[in-house]
Structure formats: structure tokens, C-alpha cells
Amino acid sequence: MSFNEDGKEILVPTVSPDGKLLDENQAIDLYHRTGQHLGIFDNPEDATIYAQTLHNQQDQMYSAPKQGVTLNINGRKVTVDDSFLQLSPEDQEKTVDEIASHLGAPKQDAAQVEQPSADDDSQKSLRSELSAMTQNPAKALYDQRPTWQKPLIAAQDIGNIIGDDLTFGFGDKAAAALRAPFTDKTYAEELAANRQGTQNARDRAGSAAYGADVTAALMLPRLLPAGQVANASAGVLPKLGRFAGGVVKGGAQGAAVGAAQAAGHDTDIGQGAAAGAAFGAAVPAALGIGKTVGGAVLKPVADAVRARANPSGYAAGKIAERLNNGGMSVDQAAARAARDGLSLADVGGSSTRDLLRTTTNIPGPARSRVASQLALRQMGQGDRLKRVVGQTLADPDGYLAAKDEIAETAKKIAGPLYREAEKTPIHFTKELEGIINTPAGRRALAKAEELAANEQVPFKQMFVNIADDGTATFKRVPDQRAWQYIKTALDDMVDAETDSITKKVTNDGRIINNLKNRMLSELDAQNPTYAAARKAWGGQQSLDKALEFGRTAMSQSPESVRRSLAAMGAPEKEAARAGAAEWIRNSIDQAGFTNNAILKFFSNRQQVKNLRALFDNDAQFKTFRQAIFAEAKKRSTYDAVRGNSTTARQMADMFETGGASEGFNTAKTAVTQGVIPAALQFVGSRLRMLGGLTPQVADNISKRLMTTSPEVRAQITSELQRIEQARISAAEKSQAVRALLGRTAAIVGSGAVVQAQQ
């Protein structure tokens, strides 16, 4: 269960650690007492998806049958142990492909898993299968056919349906009359067998049969003598006007066709004529506009056949089409996906992502699987970003340990340099004397003398001041080691003037810091070895400042960041990177599971420039930026599929399948060309929706677009490359379609084809 608190949806367990079931109040109380939760989300929908995913995983873990799992691979049942269910989807597909290779069966995108269940479930399933076979035996037998046979059977069925329509059912009678004398069957038996064959073709074709009927209706006017139609309507149509004349003409021909169909099929002629007149008046195919609208109707019929006979091939064709629409070749998409570990949906552009979104709008297995897959992938965005930050910039979770490690390494490097620098005498210039004579300088000098006395190592350097009268005054002055003590004392004074929370320095602190910088500049000029030692290790305070600088670098100007980094030594720069990595980690954690964490630290030019300055070299930043862009593409896929309201998703689905666009076009056609062309255009749009993205095709598309397995992606790429290489020009494609339709209709007769293409 989940509950909302402080604007976040918190998913909590309903079973206590000791196994006790908890009600809602007890579960919330347990969370408040122990902080235990299953995830914190931005909205209830994401919490529900995650909870359902956990539930499904637990079901697989605890409820999987111990006696094994039955896989249906290309019609052959193979039993494997229950560890198969514990594999990832990619590994399950690899296992299925390996089994298929041993069986000599072609590789399949998925295998149906049949799990043993109780006797009553098996009986219900058996009754369901028997019922389906009883109601549509032709379809059941068709489904058992080998894949390569299905396109041939589908094409033959479409041809048989069109032939039956064009001959008004008399084709079966003629064939029975011709066959009966040469067989041991009577004319009635032959006729019954022929009619059963035609009915079987319709049963197997399903929704595609309606497309065949419309195709025949468009072909029929081209077969009839034009003069007869013109004479029948002479003197009547001009008086009724274009629209009314079309209705009368369509109704008259529809009645004739209906009566002929009834006679050919031995049904009531009066009822056939009435039904034909009604259909003819509504959608008057006799107007002879098949040449302009026929293409819009015939293509969906072909799509329906392909989608039904070969859903896998049809799905691959849709993906290749979308990649081409996005201006990307299959090779380019495959290379980008392999380089960044992405899916084709991520790299294929907006058109390909829209296709994936459409598959989730179609009821079927793709809807829930893609939603869960994208939600889980988005939830892992933060961990992936932290990992790449750790690989290229600094460990975002170990900045404190990193700071200590940096300090120890810097001390080892700088130690010999400091010892060498202490051998160099420091001239007590007026600049240094003036600094020592300030109140802060005197306090720092006193602190340095105290440290030297405690170490029992007094200042080794003497200063001789010769007056104008020749008298000389000797006094002990700071040597290089003492000046280092004075620097440490001044650092402590600056820290005392710095707010521990805001890190703001008071005016006195800034004055003392400037005094220290003047002293260091003078010492560096006299002792270059000391300058090198200080650059290698400037003290713990310098590391702390560099770490804090990295935490706030994103809020500074790029010029300020570059200037500050230029003044740092290698240890300080490394500490600054650790601070920046810590800031990025905090930004990612604040984004939550389902928000886009990239926007928190890589969303404007200032942040990008500042991050680039913090990286040690161009190669590391390039790797980091490439990973960021890959995550941005993943997020684009997530937003395209899940970032729409219910209304928007439905509209997108309608546009994809042709519903919305055809609706607008139908209305436009009705206004500009009349109701009859609009009616036929609407019929074409319905066929397009029937023959397009079926649940099985959508499932195939979603699996291809979302896989990140290198082996599966290589197989898909090879398939898409074959489709791309076989692509021909628009003119050649049009000729191929016409030739295909001609071969399909040849079953009816060559005369019909010639007439239909005129």
C-alpha cells in the first residue's frame, strides 16, 4: 500500500519483519517508527506500477511450479525447469533461440509459456479451445499451419471471396455443374462443398473479408457495360441532382446486386434486393469512382492480409518505415544503439517513439509490459548517472574518504619540497617587515614563536640593521619554516572570521586573507621551491576550501570557475571535483525516481561550461556527456510513452491508426466532393484500422523497439537491413502493388483484372 506525505507517495510493506499482517494505520506507523519503505514516488500511478512489478516478481519466486515449465516453440512443446522464470527477458529469449536451434526450428521472438495449473483451470482452457474450434474450425486449422503457408492461403482466400462477390455466388454453381459429371458426387454435394469452401475462406479471413467485399464492389462497375447504366438512369438523374441521383443510382444497382447474390446463394431474393438497395444507397459503388478511392481501400486490405499472416514481418516493416521517416538508416540506428547501450526506440527519433507509444494504446500484452519496463528503467536513472560521475569525475558517494586520501597523497609529494625550501634563506624585506608589524602579523608571529619554542627549534635566521651612524642591531627574524608557521596562524584567523554554515567571511577576515596573500607572494618570489611545495600541498584548509568551491561551482559564472581552478594545485582541483560530484549526487537524489535528474545539473550552458572546466581532460568529459545524452534519449522515450494524458493518448492512437486524420479528411471530402466519396473514404479508414496494428503486431513492434540485448538487436538489425535493401521507389512500389492485386484477382478471371485497371 502507499500513502501521500509531504507531496510524495510512499510505498510501505503490509507485513511486519516478524511476519504479522498489518492494516493501513499499522503499516504507516511502522514506517514512521523504522523508516522502512519500498520506494518513494512523485505520484500514485508510479507507486502502483512499481508495487505491481514487485508483486509479479514475488509470484514468480514463490509460486512458480516446481515440476517445470512448458514452452511452446513453433508448435512443439518443450519442458524446462522453473529456473527459466528467474531469467531476465533477454536471457529467456536467448534460451528459447538455443532450444529452437537444437530442434531445427526457426528462431522466434518469444515462446508461449504454459504453466501447469489445477484441473479445473485445464478443463476451462480445454473447453475454451474446443469452443473456438467448434465455432470457427477453419480458423483453428489455419492457425496450426506452418508460417510460410499462411500468406499463400490468405491470398487465395481473398481471391475466392472477390470471385464469389463478382459472380454473385453463381461461380460455385458453375464449378459444381462442371465437376459433378466427372466425380462420384452429385451436383448438390459438389455445390455444398464449394459453398463450404467459400465460407471457410471468409472464416479464415476474418475482418479482411470485408475489405475483399469492398474491393469486389469497386471492381464490379468496371465489368458492367457503361451504356446500360447510363440508359437506365437517363431522364431521372439530371432532375434529381448530383447527390440524390447518386443515391437513386446506387440504390438501384445495389438492389440488382443483392437480388443476384441471393439467387446465386439460393436465399430469399426479396430480402437480398432490399439489403442490397440499402447498402447501395448508403455507399453507392456504382458511381465509378473506384479509380480515385480504390487505392485507399485496396492498400488496407493488403495490410490486413500481411498483418494477419506474418505479424513479425509486418512489425519489422513498420519499424523500418519509421526509421526512414526520421531520416535515419538502419545501420545508423544500430550503431548508435550499440554504442550507448540503447534501444531502437531511444535512437530512432520521434517517429519511432510515437510508434512505440501507439503499441501501448492498443489493448494487449505490449501495454503493461512496455509501461513496466520504462518505469523500472527510469527508476534506475539516478544510479546510472552516479556511476558515470564516479567513473569520469569523482566518486559522488565517497567525497569525505576521497578528501583524506587526497591529503595523504599530497603530503607525501610535498614533504621533500618543503624540506628543500627550508634551506633557502629569506631576505627580511620592508614588505615582510610591514606585514609583521600589523596587529594580525604580530599575533601570527607570536603564534609562530610559540610553535618554534614548543619544538625547541628557534628561528635560525638573524637580521642585521645598520644605522646611519654605523651602529649595528642584531635580531632573530623568521626563517622559511617560521614563515610557514605564520601562514598557518593567519589561516586560523581567517577561519575564525568565516561562518561555519554560510561560509561567508567577515570584513576582518578578508583583510587578514589579503595580508596573507601579500606575504605568500613575497615568499614565492624569493623561494620558488616553497611555491612549488605549496602548490603540491597548501594545507588541510586549502583542500576544504577547494571542496566547498566544487559544491558551489554550478552557481558561479564560468569565468570565475576557470579563474579559481587555474590558481589551484592538483590536490585542490581533485578536491573541487569531489565537491562537484557530491553536489551532483544530491541533485540526483532530490529529483526522485520518476523525474528527470539530468535537468538538475545539465540543463543550461552555464552548468555545462562549469562542469567542463572541472573535468581533468577532454576525453573524460566526452565520455560523461555521451552518457548524459544517452540518458536523455531514454527519458525522451519515457516521456513519449507515459507523458500523455488519457485524452492525448487516445488521440495519438487514432492518428497512428488513421482514425482521427481520416475523420478530418472524411469531413473535408464530404464538404468539397460530396457524401459518396466521403463514405468510401471512411470505409477505407475503417479497413486501415482493422488491418493495421493488431495486438500481436503491436507486441512484436514493442519487443523489437525496446530490446537492449546485443544478440537480439543484431538479429533485428539484420532483418531491418533486408527490408531497407529491398525498398524500391514510389513508382516501382505502385507498379508492384498493382501487379500483386492483378495476380490475386486472376483467380476470378483475367477479364476482371483488365476491366478493373482501366
TrEMBL record:
Residues 105-127 are annotated as: Disordered. It comes from the Bacteria. This is Uncharacterized protein.
